Amino acid sequence: MSVPDADLVHQAQRGDLNAYAELVNRYRTGLQRYALHLLGNREEAEEALQDSLLRAHRALGQCQQPERFRGWLVRILVNRCRTRLARSAPPVRDAERDSALDNASVEPAADHRAWAEEIQRALGALVSDQREAFLLRHVEEFSYEEMAELTGVSVPALKMRVSRACERLRAELREVYRG
Amino acid sequence: MDDENEIRSDPLLSDLVSTLRHPVAVGDRAMEQVMAQLRKESRRAPWRGRAGLATALAASVALAVFGSRRLGQPATAGGVTFALSAPSAARVSLIGDFNDWNPEANPLRRGEGQWSVTLKLKPGRYRYSFVVDGSSWRADPRTPPAEDDFGTPTSAVTVAN
Predict the structure, then answer these.
(1) Which architecture characterizes domain A1-89 according to CATH?
(2) Across chain B, which distance is largest between two alpha carbons, in Å?
């Protein structure tokens, strides 16, 4: 049986780097995925991750609910990603840079990579707050109440963002999707 | 219909979400650099922990965290030679705790049959790995297999006084 997050957080707060590494390792898949899909660019995602993990470690003493460490850590990443998006011109999304697809039709089973690139392009077409809400809800599977805590946005507003994101993604991908 | 059912009932959105949930290979090196930096800070300022007993605890962690792996030849403070046989490689570099896992810092030189570089290191324990042709990480085959904080194969050397 694995050690509860809260115990690891307490150990990490006392300076145990092993405990912190274990905590990060538990949630790394979601962190990496969120940063890449939100920012759409590998270098930006790596910098956001690095920045977030350093900040989280330095702020461990402020983690008041250690049993909810995942949400606390994701909130830091969400904020770092927002800062990066707001700071300057949007980075070139990898899907745009690498695109060899143009308007070709794509069958997911036949060409998974091309489908993934189309998805990145479609995500890039969303405004960032819709992309953020969609990824947190449907990819990272947070509840709306958790999302409201993470983002500081009300539940009704988040629901609207997710709904609009779904609508836009359907419109962006309908042409190329052959389910 | 709640929005989870909306996703499930729409093949396009269902495929989209399923694809997006796949793990992505991004940020492994960035995460490793974070841990390297935190370890360095911990050695430099072990009192940073929250509790009063943090000093002793952090000091013991710094020694115990990453286990002990010695090179085939015991290393000394005079210089440690890192070597790798990679005949088909165009370039090889050394990354580790001593250079913040920066692949530009310590390139290896091609010699007879193998690549090598010698570094002067202070006594202590260092984790390291080789980067072949800028992308492929390789542990040192001369040391017992080990893993870093995130499960990536790596190596460690202890430099004696």
Answers:
(1) Orthogonal Bundle (1.10)
(2) 71
